Amino acid sequence: MPTKAKQQSSQLIRGFEPYQETKGEEYMSERMRAHFTSILNKWKVELMEEVDRTVHHMQDEAANFPDPADRASQEEEFSLELRARDRERKLIKKIDETLQLIEENDYGWCDSCGVEIGIRRLEARPTATLCIDCKTLAEIKEKQLGS
Protein backbone atom coordinates (compact mmCIF):
# COMPACT_ATOMS: atom_id res chain seq x y z
CA MET A 1 0.00 0.00 0.00
CA PRO A 2 1.58 3.34 -1.04
CA THR A 3 2.33 5.91 1.61
CA LYS A 4 0.39 9.18 1.75
CA ALA A 5 3.48 11.12 0.58
CA LYS A 6 3.97 8.76 -2.37
CA GLN A 7 0.30 9.12 -3.36
CA GLN A 8 0.55 12.91 -3.17
CA SER A 9 3.71 13.00 -5.29
CA SER A 10 2.10 10.81 -7.96
CA GLN A 11 -0.92 13.13 -7.98
CA LEU A 12 1.36 16.10 -8.59
CA ILE A 13 3.19 14.32 -11.38
CA ARG A 14 0.07 13.10 -13.18
CA GLY A 15 -2.19 15.98 -12.20
CA PHE A 16 -5.22 13.99 -11.09
CA GLU A 17 -6.71 12.44 -8.01
CA PRO A 18 -6.77 8.62 -8.11
CA TYR A 19 -10.29 7.33 -8.57
CA GLN A 20 -12.07 6.25 -5.40
CA GLU A 21 -14.63 3.55 -6.09
CA THR A 22 -17.82 3.48 -4.04
CA LYS A 23 -19.03 0.23 -2.57
CA GLY A 24 -21.02 -1.74 -5.14
CA GLU A 25 -20.14 0.64 -7.98
CA GLU A 26 -20.37 -0.91 -11.43
CA TYR A 27 -17.16 -1.07 -13.46
CA MET A 28 -16.97 1.80 -15.96
CA SER A 29 -19.86 3.67 -14.45
CA GLU A 30 -20.69 7.15 -15.72
CA ARG A 31 -18.55 8.69 -12.95
CA MET A 32 -15.61 6.41 -13.82
CA ARG A 33 -15.85 7.26 -17.52
CA ALA A 34 -15.94 10.97 -16.65
CA HIS A 35 -12.77 10.48 -14.57
CA PHE A 36 -10.90 8.95 -17.51
CA THR A 37 -12.30 11.49 -19.97
CA SER A 38 -10.89 14.23 -17.76
CA ILE A 39 -7.46 12.55 -17.56
CA LEU A 40 -7.30 12.02 -21.33
CA ASN A 41 -8.43 15.56 -22.14
CA LYS A 42 -5.84 17.08 -19.77
CA TRP A 43 -3.14 14.88 -21.30
CA LYS A 44 -4.17 15.90 -24.82
CA VAL A 45 -4.09 19.61 -23.91
CA GLU A 46 -0.58 19.20 -22.42
CA LEU A 47 0.64 17.48 -25.58
CA MET A 48 -0.88 20.14 -27.83
CA GLU A 49 0.71 22.91 -25.75
CA GLU A 50 4.07 21.17 -26.18
CA VAL A 51 3.55 21.13 -29.95
CA ASP A 52 2.86 24.88 -29.88
CA ARG A 53 5.98 25.49 -27.78
CA THR A 54 8.07 23.52 -30.28
CA VAL A 55 6.73 25.49 -33.24
CA HIS A 56 7.48 28.79 -31.51
CA HIS A 57 10.91 27.57 -30.40
CA MET A 58 11.82 26.48 -33.91
CA GLN A 59 10.60 29.79 -35.39
CA ASP A 60 12.48 31.82 -32.78
CA GLU A 61 15.69 29.81 -32.94
CA ALA A 62 15.83 29.27 -36.70
CA ALA A 63 18.97 30.92 -37.97
CA ASN A 64 21.11 30.54 -41.01
CA PHE A 65 24.46 29.89 -39.37
CA PRO A 66 27.45 30.51 -41.62
CA ASP A 67 29.40 27.78 -39.83
CA PRO A 68 28.41 24.31 -41.13
CA ALA A 69 28.97 22.72 -37.70
CA ASP A 70 26.59 25.19 -36.01
CA ARG A 71 24.01 24.69 -38.76
CA ALA A 72 24.32 20.88 -38.42
CA SER A 73 23.89 21.10 -34.64
CA GLN A 74 20.73 23.17 -35.02
CA GLU A 75 19.34 20.83 -37.66
CA GLU A 76 20.00 17.82 -35.42
CA GLU A 77 18.26 19.55 -32.48
CA PHE A 78 15.26 20.37 -34.66
CA SER A 79 15.21 16.81 -36.01
CA LEU A 80 15.07 15.37 -32.48
CA GLU A 81 12.29 17.77 -31.52
CA LEU A 82 10.29 16.90 -34.62
CA ARG A 83 10.64 13.17 -33.92
CA ALA A 84 9.37 13.71 -30.38
CA ARG A 85 6.45 15.76 -31.71
CA ASP A 86 5.65 13.04 -34.23
CA ARG A 87 5.41 10.49 -31.40
CA GLU A 88 3.17 12.91 -29.52
CA ARG A 89 1.02 13.42 -32.64
CA LYS A 90 0.48 9.66 -32.77
CA LEU A 91 -0.32 9.66 -29.06
CA ILE A 92 -2.89 12.45 -29.55
CA LYS A 93 -4.53 10.28 -32.23
CA LYS A 94 -4.61 7.36 -29.79
CA ILE A 95 -6.09 9.61 -27.09
CA ASP A 96 -8.83 10.68 -29.54
CA GLU A 97 -9.57 7.01 -30.32
CA THR A 98 -9.74 6.25 -26.59
CA LEU A 99 -12.11 9.17 -25.98
CA GLN A 100 -14.31 7.73 -28.72
CA LEU A 101 -14.30 4.34 -26.96
CA ILE A 102 -15.42 6.05 -23.75
CA GLU A 103 -18.22 7.78 -25.62
CA GLU A 104 -19.34 4.44 -27.07
CA ASN A 105 -19.14 2.71 -23.64
CA ASP A 106 -16.47 0.32 -24.97
CA TYR A 107 -13.64 1.63 -22.76
CA GLY A 108 -11.92 -0.36 -20.04
CA TRP A 109 -12.28 -3.86 -21.49
CA CYS A 110 -9.42 -5.95 -22.86
CA ASP A 111 -9.45 -6.16 -26.67
CA SER A 112 -8.02 -9.67 -26.50
CA CYS A 113 -9.90 -11.52 -23.75
CA GLY A 114 -12.72 -9.13 -22.84
CA VAL A 115 -12.04 -8.85 -19.09
CA GLU A 116 -11.85 -5.59 -17.16
CA ILE A 117 -8.49 -3.87 -17.67
CA GLY A 118 -8.66 -2.33 -14.22
CA ILE A 119 -8.84 1.20 -12.92
CA ARG A 120 -5.25 1.45 -11.66
CA ARG A 121 -3.80 0.14 -14.94
CA LEU A 122 -5.94 2.61 -16.87
CA GLU A 123 -4.79 5.46 -14.62
CA ALA A 124 -1.18 4.45 -15.30
CA ARG A 125 -1.81 4.02 -19.04
CA PRO A 126 -5.17 5.60 -19.98
CA THR A 127 -4.90 4.42 -23.59
CA ALA A 128 -4.36 0.76 -22.65
CA THR A 129 -6.41 -1.70 -24.67
CA LEU A 130 -5.13 -4.92 -23.12
CA CYS A 131 -5.35 -6.26 -19.57
CA ILE A 132 -2.03 -6.83 -17.84
CA ASP A 133 -2.07 -10.58 -18.55
CA CYS A 134 -2.68 -10.19 -22.29
CA LYS A 135 -0.13 -7.36 -22.52
CA THR A 136 2.47 -9.49 -20.75
CA LEU A 137 1.81 -12.39 -23.14
CA ALA A 138 2.03 -10.06 -26.13
CA GLU A 139 5.37 -8.72 -24.92
CA ILE A 140 6.72 -12.25 -24.37
CA LYS A 141 5.66 -13.27 -27.89
CA GLU A 142 7.18 -10.10 -29.32
CA LYS A 143 10.45 -10.78 -27.52
CA GLN A 144 10.52 -14.40 -28.75
CA LEU A 145 9.85 -13.37 -32.32
CA GLY A 146 12.42 -10.61 -32.06
CA SER A 147 10.22 -7.97 -33.63
TrEMBL record:
The DnaK suppressor protein DksA N-terminal domain covers: 33-102
Named from the GO MF annotations, one term is: zinc ion binding
| Any one biological process term the GO annotation gives | regulation of gene expression
Q: Which Pfam families match?
A: DksA_N (PF21157), zf-dskA_traR (PF01258)
Q: Give its localization.
A: Cytoplasm
UniProt keyword terms in alphabetical order: Coiled coil, Cytoplasm, Metal-binding, Zinc, Zinc-finger
Q: Where is the Zinc finger DksA/TraR C4-type domain?
A: 106-138
Q: Which GO terms describe its cellular component?
A: cytoplasm
* Predominant place of localization: cytoplasm
Q: Where are the zinc fingers (dksA C4-type)?
A: 110-134
Q: Which Gene3D superfamilies match?
A: DksA, coiled-coil domain (1.20.120.910)
Concerning InterPro entries, the annotation shows: DksA_N (IPR048489), DksA_RNA_pol-bd (IPR012784), DnaK_N (IPR037187), Znf_C4-type_bac (IPR020460), Znf_DskA_TraR (IPR000962), Znf_DskA_TraR_CS (IPR020458)
Any idea which positions bind Zn(2+)? 110, 113, 131, 134
Output the PROSITE patterns linked to this UniProt entry: ZF_DKSA_1, ZF_DKSA_2
**What job does this protein perform?**
Transcription factor that acts by binding directly to the RNA polymerase (RNAP). Required for negative regulation of rRNA expression and positive regulation of several amino acid biosynthesis promoters. Also required for regulation of fis expression.
Instruction: Tell me which family the UniProt entry assigns to this protein.
Output: Belongs to the DksA family.
Question: Could you describe the subunit structure of this protein?
Answer: Interacts directly with the RNA polymerase.
Q: What is this protein called?
A: RNA polymerase-binding transcription factor DksA
User: Which gene does this sequence derive from?
Assistant: dksA
